């Protein structure tokens, strides 16, 4: 009957493992960093803006001449061939440059809209130019320009604008074009670097950064197309998609590596120490629990974060503890299943306190923490049930094996001197850890969570060395239900910013606003009416007379400026934006975003505290505006994460205190059980700054898990002291800590910074908590009260 039950359980377990392993293939994983951020409105708004805007989904190809024997002309030929090979659906548009002739023609066409864009202040300046001296100065400048080699391009501009009224808009177009800070020259209609050795292509793609599968296909497609380049040209891909693919690759590799290291270490540990093939069951229980929990979590949540799954080895290290206690209890109890009864209570208490710690994550606003809580609690419950109700029956049989002598030994050091020395040493270490913990710093830079390969980071540094653009500007976003509303708001803020702050205070980048190029329909109608009135008040006739009077001195004919007077008055104001002008469309795409229910107009400015504070004060008067600043974002994130950490720590500590008090029903025992928790946390805070490291969000998660682990050690040791248990608890606690350190220590081999931070924090906390549980709790217990009989 027993053998039949064993076969049934074994078959069921094997089936569950197979189905759970197959289920992994159908789970959707998510590497969206937003899952790990607090639900702060400003943080989420900035993250979603960057995610949904077309700023982050662009792909840039940087081509480089490898040989000095080839010229820029060879480079341009390769660019043209590559451009033709890039096709939909993954690439929807390629921008490799702009034709200089086409650009000048388009700008000439755009100049007809200038009267709609000039305000009252601009007309006052023009009025001051309509004098003899003013006209002579303008004609002299025009004449000098016509003597330059490029006079053919400027001739139409001069004839249609003798006073240079519209030249300011040409500067604005140049300013807006360079708003991202790239150092680009146009050669034969292509984007070429200043040294003439590099070319740039900007690609549009429908693939979002958060789409891991799509990003992988996109990068593979680009690499395939780049293979067609001549041997003397190399190419780099600069895109957020590269980070997405690299992070996924590194995370998958780390997960496989850490699980393999942990699995091999667990197996060797159990087989070497227990010398019993059935010890494999201790290892299989958490493995099955974790696999099943991943599937269940995916069914409940839909998607799982790679960061959470990366915690699988750690959860296995925690959940394996229950099997170790049951295994040792059965073997010290001569192989009888009922021997488990002695340790059921502390095992259940330990499991409940650990569940309580993970349950604290449900109170967090971080969605990723909810996933971690569900995944961990399911794993612990499954492992607990299997350890208590399945494992004992699988360990019984006709061939009972005596437990190795080393596993039966307990501590023989009971002198008061030893206990006092032990407690004193612990006190010194705690005081030192408290002193060192004042140096710990919290690092909230989210770029530290980017685990992209070194080659990716190095390629981007080389790109910025050639093209510039390393200093990312801050972004001012104004919104409106329609484009007209958004443009009006953008104009008002631009005017206030320039008047209150001044352009000089935005140096060196300047405040780059779409209002410098295009205005709302309402403003352009008013400007157009003012322009027509301005010239009809006799200034048209006066300017004609002055041009004829002084023009001959500079060899201008009487009708040289007829295009200006022919198109002087604006008859019609277009409602929206100009059409058919490529340069304008490209600028509009960069500065105007069309959302499902609104329009957003962007402005760029230096990401400096002074600029951010000034503009923050201005936009506080406009409800549908916000700033996206990397520096401000870091500060807000730091505050939000700090608040989150304090809140979760308080919840976790309260839950542990309440659960431990309720289950132990003794204040002194509760205080003793908390010693490993206090030790583990203080050592984390004290040791991390010693190594020149700083705390981050993953460290905090790991720190809270350390609380759950260490309270288990405390409860088991307090129970052993209180009831003088002979169930191998001391060895079970040692093996539990060892397996957890193995699981967490495996993360120290991870390349991804998130997993490494978690591993380091866990190892420090668990080692400190374990040593204090094994040595300090018994010593303090003996000094405080006498043990009871079992």
Summarize the structure.
With 790 residues, the protein is an alpha+beta fold. The longest helix is centred in the N-terminal third of the chain and has 35 residues, at 240-274.
Q: What does this protein structure show overall?
A:
There is one protein chain. By secondary structure, this protein is an alpha+beta fold. Helices cover 64% and strands 7% of the residues. The chain has 31 helices and 13 strands. Strands 2, 3, 4, 5, 6 and 7 form a six-stranded antiparallel sheet that branches. Strands 9, 10, 11, 12 and 13 form a five-stranded antiparallel sheet that branches. It has a two-stranded parallel ribbon with strand order 1-8. Strand 11 (592-594) and strand 12 (599-605) form a beta hairpin. The longest helix is centred in the N-terminal third of the chain and has 35 residues, at 240-274. The chain is elongated and about 115 Å long.
What is Rg?
A: 36 Å
Oligomer: single chain
| Number of DSSP strand runs | 13
Biggest sheet descriptor: 6 strands, antiparallel
Low-confidence stretches: none
Q: Helical stretch count?
A: 31
Helix proportion: 55-70%
Q: Could you say which structural class the secondary elements and strand pairing correspond to?
A: alpha+beta
Shape: elongated
Task: Give the overall pLDDT as a whole number.
Answer: 82
What percent of residues are in strands? 5-15%
N- to C-terminal distance: 34 Å
